Amino acid sequence: DLETRIALFDESVRVLKPGGVALFETPNPRNLLVGSCDFWADPTHLRPLYPETHQFLMEYRGFCQVELLLLHPPEEEHRLPSLEAPQLAARLDEVFSCARDYTVIGYKV
Length: 109
Description:
The protein is of the alpha+beta class. It is about 40% helix and about 20% strand.
């Protein structure tokens, strides 16, 4: 839940030494296949967290220079062919073929 996530970020900021780094990696719910299927295959997953929300919460709870890294994009052969409808293929690739995971990195000053 949200309270637990905030407590995790607060505790991470508290225990890190100045210059310390915290990394949190999780499945990317913006990828439609991950958000609707793969995320739920792991029984330890409770709720997906959108990358931008995760980034905001870390900044709000005291991390600095918070970076968002999108990870594990699908291979090119899994992207839609774009010859006939390039705009449609690009839009669908945004939800089907975007990064499968993301990492948020925060620093303690």
